[in-house]
Amino acid sequence: NAKKNPLFKKEDKEKFIKPNLLQVEALEKLKIIRENNFNKALVISATATGKTLLSALDAKVFKAKKLLFIVHRYNIAKKAKDTFKMIFKETKMGMFSSKLREKECNFIFSTVQTITRTEHLKEFSRDYFDYIIIDETHRSGANTYKKILDYFTPKFLLGMTATPERTDGFDIF
């Protein structure tokens, strides 16, 4: 219940964020997944249902210290960063895309095209990020995503997609 959750106190001077029903249910299921010692999960939900906000809320519940959010386009990474700023007001966030290399941040929002380069991956230790989110996870069968997933060892990995089936037969589950 959102009213009982300390993330959503109305007394806060900042904007009150009330998760929708889907987000509340997903947050509860993600909590159960971690309580059962699983370190990864997949959220499948229709477009525009609030997956990015859900991931920010879950990162808050998880108490993420170092987070990597991976997307396939810069403008999506920027929007995701803006969403996370609503939840993590004091957290230092940066972009890691194209010529931007804001890696001295707690939360990094990156395009897959940039982070997948070997020289960029090696700028971070394998366990640098405790929480990694892959947006549009249905793309994770591509070699670029596989390289990232093979390199990093986060404490928790969250995939999000509206379309889990791939035309190439790769099983994202």
Provide structural commentary.
- With 173 residues, this protein is of the alpha/beta class.
- 34% of the residues lie in helices and 19% in strands.
- The protein contains six helices and seven strands.
- A seven-stranded mixed beta sheet has the order 1-7-6-2-5-3-4.
- Strand 6 (131-135), helix 6 (143-151) and strand 7 form a beta-alpha-beta unit.
- Helix 2 (51-62) crosses helix 3 (74-87).
- The chain is globular, with a radius of gyration of 16 Å.
- The two termini are 28 Å apart.
- The model is unreliable at 8-14 (pLDDT under 50).
Give a brief rundown of this model.
This protein is 34% helix and 19% strand.
Helix-strand layout with pairing:
Blueprint: H1 21-35, E1 40-44, H2 51-62, E2 67-71, H3 74-87, E3 93-97, E4 100-101, E5 107-111, H4 112-115, H5 118-121, E6 131-135, H6 143-151, E7 156-161
Parallel strand pairs: 1-7, 2-5, 2-6, 3-5, 6-7
Antiparallel strand pairs: 3-4
Helix pairs in contact: 1-2, 2-3
Question: Which features would summarize this protein structure in a list?
Answer:
single chain; alpha/beta; 34% helix; 19% strand
Uncertain segments? 8-14
Could you estimate the helical fraction of the residues in percent?
Answer: 25-40%
Major beta sheet summary: 7 strands, mixed
Percent range for β-strand residues = 15-25%
Structural category: alpha/beta
- Counted by DSSP, the helix tally is 6
Task: Note the run of SSEs as H and E.
Answer: HEHEHEEEHHEHE
How many individual β-strands? 7
Mean pLDDT: 86
Q: What is the radius of gyration?
A: 16 Å
Overall geometry comes to globular
Q: Largest sheet, order of strands side by side?
A: 1-7-6-2-5-3-4
Cα distance, first to last residue?
A: 28 Å
